[in-house]
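Incident log, support desk, overnight shift.

02:14 A customer reports that sequence design results differ from what the structure should imply. Their input is reproduced verbatim below. On-call engineer (initials T.W.) acknowledged and began investigating.
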């Protein structure tokens, strides 16, 4: 079986080629309309972060087969662009990365509860539902009852997985005798979530202390690809819990500040380099 994990040059978590590929298209294609990028350009950029050519080519093929990428041949070159399905995924990720804060400072005390009961034979659909719920901010209060802070619209998730007949959703507030702090600790692994933020901050803060000639300056397109991909991995397990129910030294906010500062430093250099090194076309 092919190993989809590659070493991260900044000693961060190992990232699958598909995760890096989505980060690449999110960085350089999502906001460019119908732009398509040649396979050679994708191989070049992902090679900068340790992904081999064979892994890139096989990942591109898998993503086409899964309906995430479209492709078009022009002469001897093959170009790849985003499908509407991939755009929806990346737009959601874009909002999570760039718009929403790492903690919820304005929580109104409400919760979204989602109950489900699926046949034992639906292991794959159960896994898909749980994965999508976790990304949407839910955690397992009990095995078939998941909960998320605030009002979360899961209509698209339920309809896409064709589970409308097996899912019930409610809005609620905790009764006064409910220990919300304990409920949060029992539902989410706060230590693991905090460790992700702490590790991210430790790995990326040195990039802010270096001057001209650093790795970030030498290869901004590769640095930014790793930065965004790792930040997305870091926040993936975080439901954006209410700030008033988090430990006072919660590391999400300083990690977010580090992310935004490195992102601001690499944004224009990465865009400039992309214009120079990416072979592109339109409407593939």
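02:41 Re-run completed on a clean worker. Output:
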């Amino acid at each position: 079986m092919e190993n989809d994990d590659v070493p991260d040059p900044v000693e961060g978590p190992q990232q699958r080629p598909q995760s890096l590929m989505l980060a690449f298209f999110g960085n350089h294609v999502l906001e460019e309309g119908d732009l398509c990028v040649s396979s050679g350009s994708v191989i070049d950029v992902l090679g900068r972060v340790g992904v081999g050519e064979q892994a890139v080519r096989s990942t591109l093929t898998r993503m086409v087969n899964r309906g995430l990428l479209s492709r078009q041949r022009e002469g001897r070159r093959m170009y790849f662009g985003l499908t509407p399905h991939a755009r929806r995924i990346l737009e959601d990720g874009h909002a999570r990365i760039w718009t929403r804060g790492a903690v919820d400072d304005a929580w109104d005390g409400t919760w979204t509860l989602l109950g489900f009961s699926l046949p034992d034979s639906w292991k794959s659909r159960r896994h898909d539902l749980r994965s999508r719920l976790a990304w949407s901010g839910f955690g397992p209060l009990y095995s078939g009852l998941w909960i998320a802070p605030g009002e979360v619209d899961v209509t698209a998730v339920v309809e896409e997985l064709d589970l409308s007949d097996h899912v019930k959703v409610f809005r609620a507030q905790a009764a006064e005798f409910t220990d919300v702090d304990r409920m949060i600790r029992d539902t989410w692994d706060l230590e693991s979530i905090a460790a992700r933020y702490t590790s991210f901050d430790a790995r990326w803060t040195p990039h802010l202390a270096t001057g001209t000639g650093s790795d970030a300056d030498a290869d901004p397109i590769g640095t930014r690809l790793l930065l965004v991909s790792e930040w997305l991995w870091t926040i993936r397990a975080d439901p954006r819990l209410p700030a008033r129910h988090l430990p006072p030294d919660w590391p999400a906010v300083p990690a977010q500040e580090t992310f935004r500062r490195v992102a601001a430093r690499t944004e224009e250099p990465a865009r400039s380099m992309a214009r120079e090194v990416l072979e592109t076309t339109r409407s593939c």
